[in-house]
Design brief:
A six-stranded mixed β-sheet has the order 5-1-2-3-4-6. It is mainly beta. It is rod-shaped and about 135 Å long. It contains two helices and six strands.
């Protein structure tokens, strides 16, 4: 009779087993997934406004041979307008981690990449929700297939700072001057 300490154990862990013929797509927490970011954004807005107001008041006074005339006039005119246009394009690939697997099989993913080019720091951060069927055979998903996607692309350095308006200019704009 074998001792109690000898028990049969499985040769594989069912929670992590993938058959040799299976694909290598992300499916569990901690797995890596490549996001291919192809984002184009453009916006344009314009506004024109104008007002004009004129008023005049006059009065004549006469007493005997003297005649006094008093005139008062006021006018005001405003003509304003503004136009803004912005275009942006982001094309990159980065790997993210599966941070949670939802009850329906969808995965929450998140990751970030930091690039430093000529002492200019560029940070790309992505998070969102992806369906398993949107992941390609190469374990890649397009950014347009991310639900609740949040893509942040932020730069820091001399070039970024030089494109920012001076503090006194921002104060003047805030005051409406």
């Amino acid at each position: 009779m074998p001792p109690d300490s000898c028990r049969a154990q499985s040769l594989y862990d069912e929670s992590s087993f993938r058959p040799l013929t299976g694909d290598r797509k992300a499916y569990r927490v901690g797995d890596l997934l490549t996001i291919q970011v192809l984002e184009n954004a453009s916006a344009a807005a314009s506004a024109d406004s104008g007002t004009q107001r004129k008023s005049a008041t006059g009065m004549d006074l006469s007493a005997g041979r003297r005649q006094h005339e008093l005139n008062l006039a006021a006018s005001s005119e405003f003509d304003g307008g503004g136009r803004t246009a912005r275009t942006g394009r982001l094309l990159t690939q980065l790997s993210v981690h599966v941070v949670a697997v939802l009850a329906n099989g969808d995965m929450r993913v998140a990751g970030e990449q930091l690039l430093v080019i000529n002492r200019e720091q560029q940070r790309i951060r992505i998070e969102g929700q992806v369906r398993a069927q949107d992941i390609s055979e190469a374990n890649v998903v397009l950014s347009s297939r991310l639900a609740e996607a949040r893509i942040d692309y932020v730069g820091a350095g001399d070039m970024t700072e030089s494109q920012r308006a001076a503090w006194w200019h921002r104060v003047m704009n805030w005051l409406g001057l």
